Amino acid sequence: MHPAWLPDAAFAPLGSRRVLVAPGPDAGEVGGTVVDEVRRAVAAHGGSLTVHAPGDGVLDTAALHAYDLVLAVARSAAHPTGSVAGIPLPSTEVDVFLTLLTPSDAADVATTGLDEDTFVRMQTGGATVVVAGGATGLLYGLHDVVRSGQDAFVGDRPTTTSRPAAPVRMLDHWDNVDVHPVMGQVERGYAGGSIFYADGRVRDDLSRVAAYARLLGSLGVNAVAINNVNVHRTEARLLTDGLADVARIADLFRPHGVRTYLSVSFAAPMTLGGLGTSDPLDADVQAWWAAAADRVYATIPDFGGFVVKADSEGQPGPFAYGRDHADGANLLAQALRPHGGTVFWRAFVYNHEQDWRDRRTDRARAAYDHFAPLDGRFDDNVVLQVKYGPMDFQVREPISPVLAAMPRTRLAVELQVTQEYTGQQQHVCYLGPLWHEALGFPLADDATRTVAQVVSGVPGASAPARDLTAGGITAVSNVGDDEFWTGHPLAQANLYAYGRLAWDPTTDPVAVLDEWIGLTFPDADPRVRGTLHTLMDDSWLTYEAYTAPLGVGFMVDPLRRHYGPNVDGYEYSKWGTYHFADRDGVGVDRTVATGTGYAGQYPPPWRDLYEDLATCPDELLLFFHHVPYGHVLRSGQTVIQHVYDTRADAVDVVTAWVDAWAALDGLVPDRLHARVAERLAEQVRSATEWRDQVRTYFFRKSGVPDASDRPIY
Ligand code: GCU
After folding, report:
1. Which domains does the chain have, with CATH numbers?
2. What percent of the chain has pLDDT over 70?
3. What gap in Å lies between CA 329 and CA 343, rounded to an integer?
């Protein structure tokens, strides 16, 4: 099993030091993990570990100076000792650590509190000191030190307080227990089988899950849904007969601060309970869900809750009973409420039986049309989970307007780490920059409040604090039982970046990539770092440049599971994903004036900006407008020449990556080198196919010659 970003060598700087861990009286299993990590590191690298147990008395500052690294929990909920100047004081055993805070750090901690997940890191008296609010904060602080390598111990670093932006940082697994005849073991999975299931049941050997949990805990990911949102027959039973197995999985996530969730079927009262209905307003249905939740919590007391895909792509839901999504979500919320559980209800609801002849229906409008009118009706333990774009995880989409339209609803944004539409882990496509842009997009309150702030519950003009509770950040995972976890070894960077950006969406994604390179390839030749930056920094934009142009989306092959080009593959289908290319032009008119009206779902200034051809950003032009091929972009180029040039140029870029990577032979592990080389060859082949089909298609439609004179077929 590949160690990903936690190889032993990454622990060398910490492991060669004298380390004191004071996990506090409520350390629990997560505190135990911190101690274990340090124990393993010092055993391998010659340092020492001292565990300061609650009964060991008070440490004085002199004793502290016998250590290079001190990791301590500052406060104990179970043993509060009051507060001084608004600072919650720790249990006496470790109170010395808070006295180490400088007045300004202390003031910061006093204002914001030092909650479970938060840690303060400082250097004092020659030691690096991490003071955390709880065991999870201690784990996150430990990995903050690991990520800094030697820098954690040399020079003067400013004191920093770190806390996650959003309370829930979740990964969803689209894993099936049974191999699905069409979708396989992992729906949209590109990394082999499931780490959870094989042979129609939960695996006996879950050692990979334990290793995965450790990787997630190191990033601060704290929630995992372990089965596909499309809940088939066998998977539905995880909620009932399968609970003992779910508990085995939850036991492995718990020591890393990760709570376990299940995707459930809205029809479960009928399919599992034998009732005649799943109507959310039916008393028997309500009682069935309450009893189901009681059983779950009797087995898994810290169970997170449910993820639900309802009335979406054929999944059952409340519409069958004339009820709406608030009725549906609140039914499950009521069942979870006594136990502190949460419903993640997905907003991915649209008509997937559309007649392509019908030009008025617009799939992009659907989530807003269904959900915005329900704002304020969801219970407070419901989180509405909204895909970042209005369509479906395309390489380029505008941000979903739902995220600005529901100030009285807890919202989570959903990203896709698995590369369904971004190269299926055959192509290098580093998604950190896409997520950074999406999370940082100032969608709400006159372009002053970002998506990350909305889902983190940061108040704004449209959402006064009293109405708000944060939702979170979720994503579909990209791992499987593959030797490298992710099929393409470089796709590990996407999982890493997701965790780091979910913790702090403002982090520079290239810096995140650099951090990943340093951890994954410790002590590597500097050429490794340089080449990985060459391949990966802009690989999202490169992928965009050889696939569907200017935000139009799709053009993927339905018969090859969305892999590779097929410009008209979805054009005359029922799925609502069209580009409307004809001899004169291309793109979807989503304006209010002449189109589907989708642009009108945005708050100002975005509504006007997208509506007007003169202000609509080039990269989204064909998402919002149908334009003639001769339309001139801001770059000064026509649409058709842009399509021709960018596709051809992008293939040249990818082709150059092959030689760059070949030069690393012998500088990275052989098997990894070979795997990446094999995938790069496929990326060149596939990108070439994209280039030639898209260029040729638009030449045949438009008849406009390519001014660059490069081959068209
Ligand atoms: C996409 C994907 C499906 C998935 C769906 C979802 O449409 O192709 O496999 O089920 O998204 O997010 O529910």
Report:
1. 8-162 (3.30.379.10), 169-520 (3.20.20.80), 544-588+626-702 (3.90.1330.10)
2. 93
3. 7
